[in-house]
Amino acid sequence: MPRVNSSENMPQIVEGSLMTEDGRRSVNDLLDWLGLVFGFQRGNVENQREHLILLLANIDIRNRRHEAFSPLDSGTVRYLLEKIFKNYQSWCAYLHHESNLKFPPDAATQQLELLYIGLYLLIWGEAANIRFMPECICYIFHNMANELLGILYGNVHSASGGYFKPAYQGEESFLKEVITPIYQVLRKPKLYIGRGMHEDLFTLLKYTLFWILLLISKLAFSYYVEEILEYSHVPGQAVLHRGRHRHGARPTTSGHRINLLLWCRSSAFREMKKYQKDFSSWCGECQREKKVRQRQCLDTTKTAFLRMGGP
Question: What is the pLDDT of residue 130?
Fold first, then answer.
């Protein structure tokens, strides 16, 4: 597709000659350069390159009305930059920090915009479970964007042909030096029931649930609690409460297990017609009541018929 081809050219724009410390020329690709400088994994770089190209192509398709091949519009990159960093700008405003999305007067604006976007995507792609903490992602980007500005526009400018020292050493250095230490801190507290709860939080939750359930039981189930306690039940079978003959929705213990008791159609399900047939099939009391109603209905019909046909 021509529009995708025009987007593919965008990450390959590198101003000047960026040199590594050993004098080798870096590849002419912004994502590869970021991966080399900050130590991102090669697979992550390839994935985010494709991700960035598709994002730019999709935005460009919506903004263009002709099929002819043309360079990618600078407004497309600006639109993607504002959309991706909307949460980061809110984070900076909330903490009263100055944003590190800075554009020096002599900088190539479009190239720097792509570098910021690529850096954020590479951080996100390698953040693992930390990506579910957007504030942490913003914090990591905030510091790495400052390092990026120091490398490009610090003591040694890229256009001067000098050398710079990469901030991280090795292909997996970002994962080992940034992500892993943060993850170790997050998983250090003792966890319970696989929900990520600290011991104090879990204890507080237990007490809160206990008192809430106790209050609910007193308010909602007080009118039949005594009746439930008067009857025992067989494991695996529901308790039949005579009189009201409700199958109470209340847990009771039997030996070493807990049986959940169901409600009869005559109480909770009296408005739910679809349950009447199901409950009457296994509730003996309900079956007897059903037969009584059937006999009463037949007697009433017979009496009315005899009156109509009488002398």
Answer: 83
Domain count, the chain: 2
CB atoms within 10 A of CB 32: 20
Question: Model confidence over 8-23: pLDDT tens digits?
Answer: 444 544 444 455 555 5
Q: What distance in Å separates the CA atoms of residue 55 and residue 50, rounded to the nearest whole number? A: 9
**Cα 200–Cα 204–Cα 209 angle in degrees, nearest 5:** 150
CB-CB neighbours of 90 under 10 Å: 12
Burial of 245 (0-12, 13-18, 19+ CB in 10 A): middle
Please give the model's pTM, rounded to 2 decimal places. Answer: 0.55
Range of the domain at 292: 221-309
Question: Is residue 99 situated within a structural domain?
Answer: yes
Least confident segment among 96-105, 112-121, 228-237 = 228-237
In a domain, 180, yes or no: yes
Claim to verify: residue 268 and residue 122 sit in the same structural domain: no
Shared domain for 51 and 163, answered yes or no, is yes
Four-residue CA torsion sign, 126, 130, 132, 134: negative
Q: Kindly state whether residues 181 and 229 are assigned to the same domain.
A: no
At residue 28, does pLDDT exceed 70?
A: no
Residue 268 counted as domain residue: yes
In a domain, 144, yes or no: yes
Q: Could you tell me the CA-to-CA distances from 58 to 6, 12, 76, 80 in Å, in that order?
A: 12, 18, 10, 10
Q: What is the pLDDT of residue 164?
A: 53
Q: Per-residue confidence at 26, pLDDT binned at 50, 70, 90?
A: low
197-242 per-position pLDDT tens digit = 455 555 666 556 665 655 555 544 444 334 333 333 344 444 444 3
- Residue 29: other Cβ atoms inside 10 A: 17
Are 175 and 260 within one domain? no
First to last CA, the chain: 94
Alpha helices in 66-198 (DSSP H): 74-84, 86-95, 109-125, 134-153, 173-174, 180-187
